[in-house]
Amino acid sequence: MKPVLALFVFVDACGWEIIKDHPFARTHAPVRRKLTSVFGFSSACIPSILSGRWPVSHRNWCYFVFDPVNSPFRFLRHLRWLPRALTSRRFFRHRLSKLLKVHLKFRGYFDLYNIPFEFISLFDFSEKKNPLQPGGLNVGPNIFDHLQERGIPYHVSDPTRTERQSLDALLTEITAEKIDFAWLYWPDLDGVLHRVGNLSPEVPAKLAAYEPWLDELMTRAREHYGEVKLTIFSDHGMANCDTLLDLRARIEPLGLRMGVDYAVVYDSTMGRFWFFNNRARELVTASLLEVAGGRILPDAELEKLGTLFPDRYFGELIFLTDEGVLIVPSHMGERPIRAMHGYHPDAPHSYASLLTNYDAVPAHITAIPHVYELMTTQAEQAFKANGRPRQRSQ
Ligand SMILES: [Zn+2]
Question: In angstroms, what is the span from residue 187 Cα to ligand 1's centroid?
Fold first, then answer.
């Protein structure tokens, strides 16, 4: 039996609006708080949680960036001759993404999504490493670098495993009493919400399915640790998409040439633009000012959100849609999906949640990057209480 386990359970997209009136995890983690998210998708939110920093500092924000010089995708241009009926198919792109991930030695999550092969050589992919590993962020350390440096024994899930496999892997480590700190990764609620929306009965059903797993986890943890400090948390919520916006149809008639006059990545909720002449900048800006359902984010606002990059690496102009407005078609998807995140952090469904089995959450823990402070503090406490890990005999 060891004295303390710091147990962190990440439930992707378990937003405040989704659980505020739902008894999810109340028996194990009755203390609840709403957290402000970080502007961006999970590609921005998870690195922010893992580092206690905002995107401008760790530089993990949106996946695709205009960077033809460093583009690893040049050879894919040849695929532009294949029929669109094939190359826009999810199945085809999914298989190709898997092959490319191995070929390009990307260690994080990788998907080609819906970027046309005609333009793919203009772009680089900004998450080449696995953020859930030491050295996994583009700039600076994450919690796993910190734990490694301090010599604190920890467990983190392998995101390529299923949720049940990740739970089993953690249960094994808990039984062996090897660790002081654990980070369990449960990503599947996000997929359910994208598919069915936040009002479907499938959502409470998925939450209910986590309960016996949490029972199992806490029972096992208490058998091996005197005190288990449990923190369940998320990165963002999920808004239903009831309005579709064909942003591309507003830009293409301007007659500007992609890669010559301008470049754009259409994310699901954002259009990120780069300009190569003033005419393109003026035409696109004027056109976006006329678009209902979204707005250009001023620099002052981007700065407040921690997403104003001095080198404009992720785009010179950021157009963001209002909550519930989905850009379709986009470079993320050809077809609509029921719900999305990546809206303004002030939008009602953007808020994340923090559920704990301890009261002493400091008042200044109000945004998802603050979870980092809870992680480091509790890892230190557990490490101190548990003593140095025993050296393994040969
Ligand atoms: Zn998602």
Answer: 9
The number of domains in the chain is 3
Residues whose CB falls within 8 Å of the CB of residue 322, separated by 6 or more in sequence, listed in order? 293, 294, 295, 343, 347
Give me ligand 1 centre to Cα 59, in Å. 19
Model pLDDT for residues 155-179, shown as the tens digit of each residue: 999 999 999 999 999 999 999 999 9
> Helix, strand, or coil here: 186?
strand
User: Model confidence over 289-317: pLDDT tens digits?
Assistant: 999 999 999 999 999 999 999 999 999 99
CA of 191 to the centre of ligand 1 (A): 6
377 Cα: distance to centroid of ligand 1 (angstroms):
29
Distance CA 244, CA 274 (A): 24
Domain CATH number, residue 263: 3.30.1360.180
Q: Averaged over 9-33, what is the pLDDT?
A: 96
3-state class of 4 per DSSP? Answer: strand
Whole-number Å distance, alpha carbon 246 to ligand 1 midpoint, is 20
Distance 78 CA to ligand 1 centre (A): 31
Query: Within 10 Å of residue 328's Cβ, how many Cβ atoms?
Result: 20
Whether 49 and 15 map to the same domain: the answer is: yes
- Of the candidates 344, 375, 358, 363, which has an alpha carbon nearest to the alpha carbon of residue 31? 358
pLDDT above 80: residue 110: no
Ligand 1 midpoint to CA 13 (Å)? 7
Same domain, 252 and 308: yes
Residue 391 falls within a domain, yes or no? no
- State the pLDDT confidence band at 112, using cuts at 50, 70 and 90: low
Distance CA 354, CA 51 (A): 17
Distance 132 CA to ligand 1 centre (A): 17
Q: Are residues 235 and 155 in the same domain?
A: yes
For the cut 50, the answer to whether the pLDDT of residue 373 exceeds it is: yes
Expressed as residue numbers, the domain containing 309 is 242-336
Supply the pTM of this predicted model: 0.92
pLDDT, average across residues 364-389? 94
320-338 pLDDT per residue, tens: 999 999 999 988 887 899 9
CA–centroid distance, 186 to ligand 1, in Å, is 12
- Cα 98 to ligand 1 centre (Å): 19
Residue 196 Cα to ligand 1 midpoint, Å, equals 12
Kindly state whether residues 195 and 181 are assigned to the same domain.
yes
341 in any annotated domain: no
